[in-house]
């Protein structure tokens, strides 16, 4: 069975068949760069980075485009507030966004075109629509006449009559309340840098036409996947479809994939973004602040742990829960490095057979049960990803596999055993485990070592507690020993008793 994708356009899962066999074109709506990116801006890129990695693994040549909207009313307003030029602000916010993408290891984007660099293509499309009498000029603006496009509303399932009375869509200069701007006439008080020449006078493009022009420029009239958040279905994506298909006479995108929205889940703030506490919470959720507090891999793991079409509940408690889950994998990697004196990360980088698809053949593991677990893990992982790129299901397969490897270590008593064969099996299985995670962008780099304090005071205190616990256990005072462990657990500190001593870790 091949890959199936849930298509918002048809509202059902469909077999994935690219326009050109073996090649995939993806367009994801990127940020409007007027304010620092927040956690919601990371959701789409993380999801589609994982999707691209998996599609490449499955043998496809993928061209992924993410646009930058650097011409927009919000930019003009914000730049004026800050007393800077529009493009100075756009450049600064874009740099902030790209820095965050790098820390999240989103490095598979092929092109990031800017709207300001495609004015010629935008004007060209509008002229074609005008020539077909689907677009019309009015007072220096140019509008798309939605009544001329019979399929308008097919993505959002809205009818034209549903738009009557919508305050933000009404204008005395429009033929219909639902008509939307393709070109906006420049205002006298706007900066010259956002006043572009056009047949209708100086002005700037509307938001929707920018994406149509850039996707057509780099992916063609019809491409495979168009992505974005659920909030973009209407009006943005609906309008993209209308203007693109009206000008080309061809289907715009064959598959529409929309990720769920990010919800703030906390009792400390209200639901209104006008509330000061809510604004404070949102400011903490900027990617810059989040990445100062949490590792990029943790944020990535947090987002991929939810199937992409479902809403993501953001809270500190949820992040901490995912930190504990991720620590399960890190502990396995540490354990293997201690037992085998070799890093699974390094082995995955250098081992000639460290390809995830080899898991289906047993990963060169000699032990029958572990080889079977490797096969099962790969099958479960691939089955989840083939079913609408279900990264949550893929991660569940990783947890099952980690459990199998840990059970093998216990059964073979590898903490004390000298069996080179069994140790090699454990290392090989964990190496393939890393390779499997890398198919969705996990385990690309070893986790940064956790620091405690600059003077080592925390290490010293923990060693004292460990020594005291060992003393009371030796005296058979197990109640006190358990109390020490339980209180440390409450503080999210884990003790691990090993043959060569007890170690501790945070989380």
Quick overview:
Strands 4-3-9-10 form a four-stranded parallel sheet, sandwiched between helices.
CATH architecture of the largest domain: 3-Layer(aba) Sandwich
Q: What is the count of structural domains?
A: 3
* Alpha-beta classification: alpha/beta
Overall pLDDT score: 88
Q: Which strand order does the major sheet show?
A: 4-3-9-10
Q: What is the 3D form? A: elongated
Topology:
Elements: E1 4-7, E2 12-15, E3 23-28, H1 39-57, E4 61-66, H2 73-82, H3 86-103, H4 119-131, E5 135-138, E6 141-144, E7 180-185, E8 203-205, H5 207-219, E9 223-229, H6 233-248, E10 253-259, E11 262-264, H7 276-284, H8 287-293, H9 296-304, E12 312-314, H10 316-340, H11 344-350, H12 368-386, H13 391-411, H14 420-438, H15 457-474, H16 478-490, E13 493-498, E14 501-506
Parallel strand pairs: 3-4, 3-9, 9-10, 11-12
Antiparallel strand pairs: 1-2, 5-6, 6-7, 7-8, 13-14
Can you walk me through this structure?
It is built from 16 helices and 14 strands. It has a 4-stranded parallel beta sheet, with helices on both faces. The protein has 3 domains: 4-259, Rossmann fold (3-Layer(aba) Sandwich); 310-438, no CATH class; 457-506, no CATH class. The protein starts with a strand and ends with a strand. Helix 4 (119-131) crosses helix 5 (207-219), helix 5 crosses helix 6 and helix 9 (296-304) crosses helix 10. Residues 164-171 and 267-274 have low confidence and may be disordered. The protein is α/β, with parallel strands linked by helices. Helix 1 links the parallel strand 3 (23-28) and strand 4 (61-66).
